[in-house]
Specification:
Elements: H1 7-10, E1 25-28, E2 34-38, H2 53-63, H3 75-88, H4 98-104, H5 114-130, H6 133-143, H7 153-161, H8 170-179, H9 183-186, H10 192-208, H11 214-222, H12 238-248, H13 254-259, E3 263-266, H14 270-283, E4 287-292, E5 299-303, H15 328-336, E6 345-348, E7 368-371, H16 372-377, H17 381-391, H18 393-402, H19 424-435, E8 439-441, E9 446-450, E10 456-459, E11 464-466, H20 470-485, E12 499-504, E13 510-516, E14 521-527, H21 540-555, E15 570-576, E16 589-595
Parallel strand pairs: 1-3
Antiparallel strand pairs: 1-2, 3-9, 4-5, 4-14, 6-7, 8-11, 9-10, 12-13, 13-14, 15-16
Helix pairs in contact: 2-8, 2-10, 4-5, 4-6, 8-10, 10-11, 14-21, 15-17, 15-18, 15-20
This protein binds zinc ion.
Amino acid sequence: MLFPLSEDLKTISTRLEDFTPSLTTRVYDIRGRLIGEFFTERREYAHLEEIPPLLQKAFIASEDQNFFRHPGLDPLGILRALWQNLLNLRVVEGGSTITQQLSRSRFLDNRRNLERKIKELLLAILLERRYTKEEILEAYLNQIYLGHGVYGVKAAARLYFGKDLADLTLAEMAMLAGVARSPSYFSPYIDFSAAQRQQRRVLRRMLECGFITQEEFEKALSAPIVLSGLEKRASLCPYFLDHLLKELRTTFEDWQIFSGGLKIYTTLDADIQKVANEALKESGYQGAILCIDPTNGYIKAMVGGRSYEESKFNRATQAHRQPGSTFKPFIYAAALDSGFTPSSILVDEPLEFPNGWKPQNYERIFRGPMTLREALEKSVNIIGIKLLQEVGIDKVIQYARKMGIRSNLRRDLSLALGTSELTLLELTTAYSAFANGGMVPEPLAILRVEDTAGHVLYERTPVVRRALSPETAYIMARLLQGVIERGTGRRAAIGRPAAGKTGTTEDFIDAWFVGFTPNLVCGIFLGNDDRKPLGPQKTGGIIAAPLFARVMKEALKDTPPHDFSCPEGVVEIAVCLKTGLLPSPSCKTVVLPFKRGTTPQTVCTSCP
Ligand SMILES: [Zn+2]
């Protein structure tokens, strides 16, 4: 031997069945409580005689056509891979025989460095010396990862087709062999058409190898594939676990996630998640609930739908929907930085644009002159549009972007009515800026991933950026507090300082409430996947706001109430409720925040 055998190679088990020790990966919430597991389903071992010869050939055709001829390595394949490595100045995969793939699965450390590559080749040669081709193939077909936590062809046949190995059709066998290339991309549960493309590739290789006839090839190509459906997973936070998986897959291989025994520490709070689950389920509506800590972006609860069994589509992160009036605060924030104050007067009146557009208020009435405060509390569309016109579409879009909205935004005045579709995650994150003195966090789900020995393999820390001045953020928080105290969001009241905004779209298709305290932001979205109306008068204020109240009350029950903290540059004074001017003795008053130097200077003369 040219290379000294390291511990790894010396401790090679002599039993092929022992390959890939499978350890459950555990997921913990913010307080260290177990909230989920990623694991390999119990492997069902299949002896080679149980595995249909055609299925064996499908894998051989797909992965290693010369399997029965080469000595464990495919010299041409290795030369090709080495040449690629030289070209790329790094180690890329390639030229791997079935034996090499089997030996690779011995190394839990999946780094693609040269040392590991050499060990892998040496082990492949050792395997070939010690075992027959049939034994190697059997081990391979039992240990290969085939997606969704499943190893081996026997369990995979059940996972995908609900069948015993003996009942598989050629079309199904080819699809199974195709999945092996990269289960997270080619699983028919993840991307059916990608799975079909792989199936076609495998069938073509089988045809080229002479394993099947032209007639069998064509018949298999047109044979229908019926999937058995993924097993139901009852869990506290299935949508959140899916969300985690996406992030984990940017760093870890599936086999590490499902059998590497990782410990994943997350930001979720099981208590808040539980109440959010119940709130959505009992509401009877389809939708999503998301809770974020505005100070650090920790996702405290994520409900992506009323039933994961019914649909795995995550409506908190994946559904792009019209936000309706929950978009208005972006306009108001930009307006506060463009010379407007809570007392600025705008006129609610009929508008007609040159293109014939005649926007309406929700109540189909026009109220005449009113303050900015009242317009936001009552969610007056006309004033939203006028403000957008005054401030400028580009500036408002710029504000939305700074606050974390990434979806496309329409460059026209209908933007004021929330016609540009976005996700609950974007919206809830953006509102964090109001709750957190103008600082907006990146949403965070995973804090830390450790291996079985407790070594930290992956770590994330909060990233928080300034999106608004502390003054503007505070004034917005107070104005949005008025929405709950006096406006469209009264059903969101929770008996402590809280702020938020309702949203309802045309024909009651979407209902929203996004609200917050200084400690927690909670976004509620309700709406049918097919965009069927929720029903008459099912507004955000009526059906979404109560869910906010329910979740927040429970989530904050152990947290003392906090006021939004008023920054240096803001003064709060009592003004006339109606006109926003300094109050006369006969005025009803409200305390409003103003940037220093912008308080009203004249006394109200309108109140009798
Ligand atoms: Zn007055």
